[in-house]
Amino acid sequence: MRVLFDTNVLIYREDFKELPQPLQELLRILREYGHSQLIHPASIKDIKRDTNEERKRVTLSKLEGYPQLESAPEPTDDFLSSIGGSSSPNEEVDNSILFAVYRNMVDFLITEDLGIHKKAKKLGLEDRVLSVERALNYFNQLHSRNVPKHTLLEYKELGSLDLNDPFFDSLREDYKDFNKWFEEKSREGRRGFVYQPEGEGIKALLVLKEEKEGILTNPPLPDRRRLKICLLKVDLKGSKLGELFLKLAFQYCIENGIFETYLTHYTKGDDALVHLLKEYGFENKGKLPDGQDVYLKDFRVKEEDLKKGVSAIYPAYRDGKDVGKFLVPIRPEYHEKLFPEYRGRKQ
């Protein structure tokens, strides 16, 4: 997203005083998630009117680190009439900045100027002209994610893993650019669920990523919010870690409002992974240009899906008078072993 900062916020940002905590956190989030931080050319004009030459020189030198909004349009007469015109140089700057939002040059304007907020309300732009506090709340909610936890697994940055571990050898054989991909994701700070017993090498790894783009099968799948299972590998046969990883991916989707998850895979003969995917309701949606099959699970269960069995519609379930219910008592000492992902256990 493109976020425009007003002069009054930039003065806070570039002053010699301690940076306010909400603004620190907002700037951190914007940087972390790659949102563009822009200033309007009119803000530069506003700073240049400062009669304190030393302060003006220092502030302008620091503003050079911010990209300016290019081709910023001049407010039209109709726009100025709708908000009451401009009665001072300061108001001219405010109106120019607000006009950039009105013309959809940016997604949001961050300002503490009450006058601009009043004008934004007249224009119906109050949801896009935010104070620092409101902006922080918005971006916190936008990027807040519930990440599943499990007592057997660590949720670690990929960069902390040893790429020379033999665990990755088969991945290098199947994907010639695997090392390059792994290093790129490590630099991005990507994390994964890792099973690595103490004193041993990696035994299992799951890497997830949210996407919004379409999938280039033939025919292509449309743009939609999905969870991609980027990497799923288990080196312990009979451990059921593959099922655990799928359930973690499902849990991530359910807790974060995502209705589809998928992975790509070079299918090989009697493929154990494909058998597992089909058991849990994944469908082959076609091939990518590089020959990988796309296996996708949709959590929106249709009537015909109910005939596929319990695992295929998991984590959904069928209920009704014709469905029997049974209570299975679990002794407390076995609860954690059987349900390690359950976080609401009472002692």
How would you describe this protein?
The protein is an alpha/beta fold and about 350 residues long. The chain has 2 domains: about 140 residues, 5'-nuclease (Rossmann fold, 3-Layer(aba) Sandwich), CATH 3.40.50.1010; about 180 residues, Gcn5-related N-acetyltransferase (GNAT) (Aminopeptidase). It is about 40% helix and about 15% strand. The strands form 2 sheets. Strands 5-6-7-8-9-11-10 form a 7-stranded mixed β-sheet, covered by helices on one side. The protein has a 4-stranded parallel β-sheet with strand order 2-1-3-4. Helix 2 crosses helix 8 and helix 3 packs antiparallel against helix 6. It is elongated, with a radius of gyration of 27 Å. The two termini are about 45 Å apart. The mean pLDDT is about 90.
The proportion of residues forming helix, as a percent range, comes to 25-40%
Order of helices and strands: EHHEHHHHEHEHEHHEEEHEHEEHH
CATH homologous superfamily heading of the largest domain: Gcn5-related N-acetyltransferase (GNAT)
What strand order characterises the main sheet? 5-6-7-8-9-11-10
Find the structural class using helix and strand composition. Answer: alpha/beta
Largest sheet: 7 strands, mixed
What is the global morphology?
Answer: elongated
* Multimeric state: single chain
Strand content: 15-25%
Mean pLDDT, nearest integer? Answer: 89
Rg: 27 Å
How many separate domains make up the residues? 2
Number of helices: 14
